[in-house]
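Quick board copy: two proteins, each given as sequence then tokens.
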Amino acid sequence: MSKHAVVYCVTGKHIQLTAVSVTSVINNYKGALLDILIIVQDVTEKDMVTIKQIPVALQKENVTIYFGIP
């Protein structure tokens, strides 16, 4: 089983654009497993929780989203 990863670095209100991109990546991903790492600064906990729910909302159990805070 192959595993792929995508990494984002984002600050502040640009998290909205990241959410759109993450949704598009998840919708179009055809592989087995995908990890998405989002390095954030000045992003609210609420935004992070919402983005972590995107794979659940899209019924893509093969995708996991992680957040890193520098």
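And the next:
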Amino acid sequence: MVNTKVIEIQNYLPHRAPMLMVDIITAINADSVATRFRVTEDNIFVENKRLCEAGLMENAAQTCSAIVGQTFFFDENHQERLNVNVLGFISAMKKVEILGLPQVNDVLFTEGKLISRMDGDDFSICLIEVITRIETQTLLRAEVNLFLQKQ
């Protein structure tokens, strides 16, 4: 994966607080992405000072969608497309392994790798392998199917 400058995730996703579960993209290219996210006490997915399974899965899905989302929000010359509305949703999560739950103030490092992608005129369907860690501890491994469509 090619390292890049820190990129604001809002440039690649339609999500906004309180549903935004990624702070920044630390690297991205056409086939992979890496993100960072700090778990805060006021996060809607925090229960008993831990990020619940749904929050961990939402972080993974948002990380993955940035790979495909960049094609909707930026053209082939990396120029931002204005007034783009994208509908995206998880169509399936497969082979999900949750090996631990992060605590408040933990920083998640999530990496996604594109396995397959099919594009139509205004939509993309893709399968992405994802892994989430805090430091060296793996918290989640999964395969995510996503559907994204320009509105």
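Board note added afterward: The mean pLDDT is 85.
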